[in-house]
Amino acid sequence: MALGINMREAHFPGRAPIDAYGNGGFRFADMSHRGSILCLPSGIHGWQPADPASLASGDLQRVLDEADDIEILLVGMGPELRPLPKELREAFRGASIACDPMSTGAAVRTYNVLLAEDRAVAAALIAVD
């Protein structure tokens, strides 16, 4: 019987502030993750949007699945602010989630403040170099 590496989905089962970002990843809860992340009520999940330059509703379905526990979604769009596509804005409006796109750095800082205030916040953070 051959033993191989068992690859599992990246997931931290709790809410934690983001300690650092850059170099293509994030540090939180004494751990690091290379790539983008979703910070949700169910925990921090590794995330791979199909096209970070143009997000679609499928990229953020996990957020919509947890909509009952989220009031605010911060979307870290990378190094610069880009608008969210109309279909995404409408999907979040329909789920009663206020959606705020901004640069990843601004989203990390805002997420940490709202998390410390125990707000119903989530974040979709695209990794930056």
UniProtKB/TrEMBL annotation:
Top-level taxon: Bacteria
Coiled coil: none
Signal peptide: none
Membrane-spanning residues: none
PANTHER family (alphabetical): NADH DEHYDROGENASE [UBIQUINONE] 1 ALPHA SUBCOMPLEX ASSEMBLY FACTOR 3, NUCLEAR PROTEIN E3-3
Protein name, entry field: Mth938-like domain-containing protein
